[in-house]
């Protein structure tokens, strides 16, 4: 599984970074997802971050 953040939608609230810092990080004013497969131990947190994103900027790719 992979995660992607749409930089045109992201507001930079950092909720995803706080929820799953192994996958998400801030790049300037917006969040970005690491360009790698999400480890199995981070999958649940990554999905949680996507579900909790207030502007639905995170896409999960299975």
From TrEMBL:
Gene Ontology MF terms in the entry: electron transfer activity; iron ion binding; iron-sulfur cluster binding
Chain's role: Ferredoxins are iron-sulfur proteins that transfer electrons in a wide variety of metabolic reactions.
Limits of the 4Fe-4S ferredoxin-type domain: 1-29
Source organism of the structure: Candidatus Brocadia sapporoensis
Keyword terms of this UniProt record: Electron transport, Iron, Iron-sulfur, Metal-binding, Transport
Keyword Transit peptide: no
Keyword Hydrolase: no
SUPFAM superfamilies in the cross-refs: 4Fe-4S ferredoxins
Protein name: Ferredoxin
